[in-house]
Structures are given as C-alpha cells and as structure tokens.
Amino acid sequence: IEKLMAANIGTMIPGASPDACHTFRITRDADIEVRESEAEDLLEMMEQNLKARRFGSVTRLEVQSTMPKEMVEHLKTHLDVENEDLYVIDGPLKLVDISAAADLPRPDLKYKPIKTTTPKSFKGESMFDVIKRGDVMLHHPYIPYSLVTDFIAEAADDPNVRAIKMCLYRLGKESPIPPLLIKASEQGKQVTVLIELKARFDEGNNIEWAKKLEEAGVHVIYGLLGLKTHAKTSLIVREEEDGLRRYVHAATGNYNPQTSSAYTDLGLLTADERIGYEVSELFNFLTVYAQRGDFNKLMVAPINLRETMLANIAREAENARAGRPARIIAKLNRLADSEMVNAFYDASKAGVKIDLIVRGICTLRAGIPGISENITVRSVVGRLLEHSRVYYFENGGEPDIYIGSSDLMPRNLDRRVETLTPVEDPDIKKYLRDEYLEMYLRDTAKTHFLQPDGSYVKAEVAEGEELFNAQEAFQFAKPIPYLDGAGESNDQGRKYDV
To answer: Looking at 129-143, 217-231, 473-487, which range is the least confident one?
Structure first.
C-alpha cells in the first residue's frame, strides 16, 4: 500500500516526487492510568482513557533504511524520540500486516484443520446429568469449545437453573456467551457477571458488552478496587430433587471462542460440593457482599495462592529430605516471582526433581550446580499458543494437581484475582500426569531448553530418532477417561438462537 501511495503521491500532493517518499511507523504508549479510587464511574473513565490512548507519547520510531538523515532528525525532534528508541528497518515495516496473506484461498499452503473429538456422552444428554456422574476435563482445541457454550446455553434455557455467575476477562466481538446471559436474565434467572474493563487491548469489547448486559438487566460488576480479575470461573446454581446443586466450570483460558481454536487450554466441569461452595464464596467476595472466605480447596490470589503454592513446594522439599516420593511438574506461561524462584531452588537443593514447562518469561536459571541442577526448564512454542496452567505435586505418593488462571509472577500473585482449582477425580489426575504432562516432557519438535546462562537450546534427538510433536500427538492421543469412545468432528462452535 505504501508503495502504491508513493508512486501516486503527485495526485495527492501536486509537485511531490515519489523519490522523496519514505515510510515510518510510530508506536505509542498503550498503558492506561486508572485511578479507580478517584473514579465516580469506572466504565466512563475507561471509555475516556481509550480515546486518550490514540494520543499517547511515542515510545518507538521505526524508519526505512533509505530515509535521509535530515528527515529522520526532523521526525525525532517533532515526535520527541531519543536515539535508543529509533529503529532503522531494512525491509517492510509492521510485518504483522502480512498475516492478511493467511486469508488467501490456498489450502495447500495452510495447516490441516485440528482434529477434534466430541464425547458421545454429550450428544443427546443433559450436560448437568453428565457432570453429576463425575468430573469432566475439557482439553481445547482438541475438544471443541462449543461444549462450554452448550453448557451456558443449556443453563440459560433450563427452568430449574436459579443463578448463573461468571468471570469474563476477554470477550471477543462476536462472543456468543453474553447474548446467552442476556437470554437467561430475561427468563428470570439471577445473572451476575464480573467483567474486567482493564483487560489490555480488549477494553473496548468489554465495555460494549458491559453496556449491553446492564441494559438487559444483568447484574454487572467490575471487580475489586486496585485488582484485576483474571480468574476464569463460572458458577451455575440449579434446583434439583435433593435441593440446590452447584455446577462449576474452572478454566485456564478466557471465555472467548475465537481464541479457543488457536490456544491450548483446559477446563474442569464439576459438581463437587466443596469446590462449588468455595466458588460461591469467591463470587460473594468479588461482589463485595462478604468478607474474604476461607479457601481450603481453591488457591485464590491475592488471598492464599502465594502462601499455599510456597507451602506445596516446601512440602516436596521436606518429602525429598525424608526419602519420600517428591516431584514437581508445572506448566505455565511465565515465571518471574523471586520468592517462587527461590522456593524452587530450595526444593532442588533438597533433591526434588522439578520439570518446568514455561512458554515465555522465566527468571529462574536451570542446571546451576549446587542450586538448580535438579531443575529442567523447557519452552514449547508451536502452531498453537500454549496457554494452560497446570501444577503437579507428588505429595509423597498422593499427588495434588491444580489447574487455573495464574502464572507465577508478582502481578498474578499479589495484584490480580486468580484461581487455581484442584483436580479431585483419580482418573483425570492420572490422565493429566501420565498423558497430558508427559506429552510435553516428551516433545522434541517444538521444545527449547533453558541453559544456565539464560540462553535456549533446541531439543536434540538421537540419530535415526523421529521428532515428537506434542501438539500434533494430542489429536490422536488416548482419550481422556470419560470420553467413552468419543466420535470425531471438526466442530469449531455453533450458532445459538438467542
């Protein structure tokens, strides 16, 4: 486009020469300062801040390598940019625009569609009945995200459902979930939605949905003062023959069907009374109608997640020193909390074997003699964005496994509302340990190992050995225990009559 503009610049600016045209690109500060304590209306403040973002200070200037020095200096002066924020590019600017080529009709140049499976037990049977029989683990995108939307849709239509409560962090423009919540509210159900207005770069979508939900009579709240709500949790209260029963969906990913096809995430569906009670306490806490609850099952930030995680790591260290089985496997997006890093070091020195699968930032250094020689850190970066968080503790032969929304960073542990939910079903625990996590530990195709100096080295394979790609293998892996001969499909979500 810029070449077309340059070639025809004379039609827009008479006398201008194409030879004097040079491309530049600026990046503005996208941080939004939110002084919640001073806001009379947080929604209105966020709308004003979004408009102001377009005029944020310039933090980076990219220029073509052919741009004359005088022109570069002119831009630096008027945009108030220093040399350290100037980037001279020999090639096209804003490479992300080239992603538009992915929309071209060339299936021969694209990945084959992800093979998905839909459990037979979910076909023609109430999801409430399925969940009552036992916990269900969903693994997206290998199990279609439409099952989550089906669950909300069934709850919206079910005359026995009394209340629906959800934490919504990132909502796509075309998300089917808010219309279903509006439908549920119109049918007389108590619907409470916590929408995080401060979800970076999704503020606009969230604001629009918040307005629509409020107009429809849904009870919309924006979280606690000074904290982002990053938890991915839903609670459905249903009246049944033996009284009220709570159904919980605890997930690692956002309620966003668009990203669910590109991210790997886990979701737990359970009717466990203890978990249901604590999720109910969580929503009471978030709606400011109650004091902080006592969480014995859930890890909730900023209440008990940090101290419980540290206690679990310390327990593994104590078990190792006592000669009992000790092991830690953690899969997360980022590890950058110094207290957690030091706890892993202490456990390693005690003899605990620790495998960390960290996709992005990791401030821990693995393989340092006397400090972290028992720790391995690998990053798996493939076709799908690894987004699930799973924490496994051997616990002397009685393993504890948690899934949820939290990474191990100060912001997650101290400045956000996060949840990690225990997996209690023995079959699902076994699946997560022996199949799910083991797949990532076996990966050699998309894995890089962190070195003691902070560099990463691609996984090696022996001569003649084939590369193992975990993301591809999940499409053909042994079914999760409850799948009872799941049938194949490529359902990426369906339309809902709302």
So the answer is: 473-487
Where b means 16+ CB within 10 Å and e means fewer, 380-397 reads beeebebbbbbbbbbbee
Q: Is 230 a catalytic residue?
A: yes
Angle at 450 between CA 448 and CA 454, to 5 degrees: 130
Q: Which residue has the tokens 């390598």?
A: 65
pLDDT band at residue 490 under the 50/70/90 scheme? very low
Using an 8 Å Cβ cutoff, are 209 and 237 in contact?
no
- Shortest CA distance to 396 belongs to which of 297, 296, 327, 344? 327
Cα(131)–Cα(268) distance, integer angstroms: 10
Active-site option among 230, 249, 387, 448: 230
Q: What pLDDT digit, counting tens, does each position of 29-82 carry?
A: 866 665 544 444 555 655 665 665 566 789 999 999 999 999 999 999 999 999
pLDDT tens figures, 401-454? 999 999 999 999 999 999 999 999 999 999 999 999 999 999 999 999 999 999
* Per-residue pLDDT at 52: 57
Q: What is the identity of the amino acid at 403?
A: I
CA distance 436 to 45: 43
Amino acid identity, residue 360?
Answer: G
